[in-house]
UniProtKB/TrEMBL annotation:
The protein, known as: Homoserine O-acetyltransferase
Catalytic activity: L-homoserine + acetyl-CoA = O-acetyl-L-homoserine + CoA
Residue span(s) of domain AB hydrolase-1: 63-372
Enzyme Commission number(s) of this protein: 2.3.1.31
NCBIfam families associated with the record: homoserO_Ac_trn, PRK00175.1
Active site, per annotation: 168 (nucleophile), 333, 366
Membrane-traversing stretches: none
Localization per record: Cytoplasm
Stretches the record annotates as Disordered: 1-20
Length: 388
C-alpha cells in the first residue's frame, strides 16, 4: 500500500529550482489548510510541511516510524541533501539492513515548523503580505512542532505510530509525542536528550542569538532581499558546535596542533587547527540555514519544559500513554548528560510506563548519536524488533 500524500507538490530547492526527489526517498512538500493552533494562541493557516518518506505504508498502517530531527537537521535523513550534496544525516541508522529499514517500515521525517527547508517558518511567505514572515512569524514551541507533524501524519493516513525516534532536539519531540498524543504512539526512542533546558543550555543559546542579532546585516530580521547575517550566524554555529563535542574528542582530533605554514607568524588568523575547523563549520552552516530560523528554533528549545506543561510533575506527562520507551545517553555528552536521561527514566517509572535505559560509552560527546555507534544501532534495532 502506497501512503496517501505521494502526489503532493514536489519540494523545490529555492536556490536551484530543481525538484528534490531523491533516489532512495521521496521528498515532498504539502500545504495543509490548518488552522494549527499554536501554544502562543495564534492560529497558523495554511501550514507548509516539507518531508521525506522511505518505504511503503502497510495495509493496516501499522509500520510507520516518525524520525524527528535535531536543531540544525532537516527532513533529508537518509538521502543526499539537495543543497550540500552530502549523504543524509542519519544514514547510519536508516536504510537497508539498518535498525530503521524501509523494507519493514514506512519512514517519515518532516522538517520542523519554524525551520528553513520547506516547512512554514520565518523564511516562508506570509500570505497576508506576500513577503517572508521574518520576525513576524509567530513564536513556536516543541509541542507546536509535534502538532504540525500530527497534521502531516493525518494527511498520510497514519493514525498510530509504530515508533517515534529522535536525538537531541529530536528527542524532545519524541518525548512530547506520547505526552501530547498518548493514543498515537506505540514506542518512543529518545537519544541524547532532555525533558527541559537548564540555565547553562539557555545561556549558550543566548550567546548564539546575540551573535546573530549583533550582525549589522540582520536588520531586525528583514534581510531576505539583501545580504544575510552570515557572520553572526557562523559565530552562533561555532559556539554551539563546541557543545556538541567532548574535550577528549577535541584533544584527540586537534590537540594544540598548529596549522601548517611556510613561516611561523603570530596573529589572529586561524593559527590552531581547531580554530580552522570551527570556522569551517560556521561558514558551511550559513550556506544551508536561515538566521531567523535559528533564533526561533533555539528559543523553542529553551521554552521546552515537559514537566511544566503537565502541572509541574514530569511523571504526569506519561500517565495516559501506553507507549514503550527506550532512552539512550552517552558518557561524554555534557550538553545533555546522563543525569538528564535518568530523570526522565525516574518519571517514567513513577508513571508506570515500560522503559529501558542504557548509557553508552563514546569519545564523541553529544554528537555521538550521529556518528558511528554500533552499540546504539544494536540498542535501537533490538527495541524496535521487540515491539513487533
Amino acid at each position: 500500500m502506497v501512503a496517501r500524500g505521494m502526489l503532493d507538490t514536489p519540494a523545490i530547492d529555492p536556490r536551484t529550482g530543481h525538484d528534490t526527489d531523491q533516489r532512495f526517498g521521496l521528498a515532498r512538500r504539502v500545504t495543509l489548510p490548518g488552522p494549527l493552533r499554536l501554544d502562543g494562541g495564534v492560529l497558523l493557516s495554511p501550514v507548509d510541511i516539507a518531508y521525506e518518506t522511505y518505504g511503503t505504508l502497510n495495509a493496516d498502517a501499522s509500520n510507520a516510524i516518525l524520525i524527528c530531527h535535531a536543531l540544525t537537521g532537516d527532513q533529508h535523513v537518509a538521502s543526499n541533501h539537495p543543497r550540500t550534496g552530502k549523504p543524509g544525516w542519519w544514514t547510519r541508522m536508516v536504510g537497508e539492513g539498518k535498525p530503521i529499514d524501509p523494507a519493514r517500515h514506512f519512514v517519515v521525517c518532516a522538517n520542523v515548523l519554524g525551520s528553513c527547508m520547506g516547512s512554514s517558518g520565518p523564511a516562508t511567505i506570509n500570505p497576508a503580505t506576500g513577503r517572508p514572515w521574518a520576525m513576524g512569524f509567530p513564536v513556536i514551541t516543541i509541542r507546536d512542532m509535534v502538532r504540525a507533524q500530527a497534521m502531516l501524519l493525518d494527511h498520510l493516513g497514519v493514525g498510530v505510530l509504530h515508533a517515534v525516534v529522535g536525538g537531541s532536539m529530536g528527542g524532545m519531540q519524541a518525548l512530547s509525542w506520547p505526552a501530547t498524543f498518548p493514543d498515537r504512539v506505540k514506542a518512543c526512542v529518545v537519544i541524547a536528550s532532555t525533558a527541559r533546558h537548564t540555565a547553562q543550555n539557555i545561556a549558550f543559546h543566548e550567546v548564539g542569538r546575540q551573535a546573530v542579532m549583533a550582525d549589522p546585516n540582520w536588520r531586525g530580521g528583514e534581510y531576505h532581499d539583501d545580504a544575510a547575517p552570515t557572520a553572526g550566524l557562523a559565530v552562533a554555529r561555532m559556539a554551539a558546535h563546541i557543545t556538541y563535542l567532548s574535550e577528549a574528542g577535541l584533544t584527540e582530533k586537534f590537540g594544540r596542533r598548529l596549522q601548517a605554514r611556510d613561516a611561523k607568524s603570530f596573529g589572529f588568523d586561524a593559527d590552531f587547527q581547531v580554530e580552522s575547523y570551527l570556522r569551517h563549520q560556521g561558514l558551511a552552516f550559513t550556506d544551508r540555514f536561515d538566521a531567523n530560523s535559528y533564533l526561533y528554533i533555539t528559543r523553542a528549545m529553551d521554552y521546552f519544559d515537559l514537566a511544566e506543561e503537565h502541572g509541574g510533575l514530569l511523571a504526569n506527562a506519561f500517565r495516559a500513554t501506553k507507549s514503550r520507551f527506550c532512552l539512550v545517553s552517552f558518557d561524554t555528552d555534557w550538553l545533555y548528560p546522563t543525569a538528564e536521561s535518568r530523570a526522565i527514566v525516574q518519571a517514567l517509572n513513577a508513571a508506570g510506563a515500560p522503559v529501558s535505559f542504557v548509557e553508552l560509552s563514546s569519545p564523541y560527546g553529544h554528537d555521538a548519536f550521529l556518528l558511528e555507534a554500533p552499540d546504539l544501532n544494536r540498542v535501537v534495532d533490538g527495541f524496535l524488533r521487540a515491539g513487533r
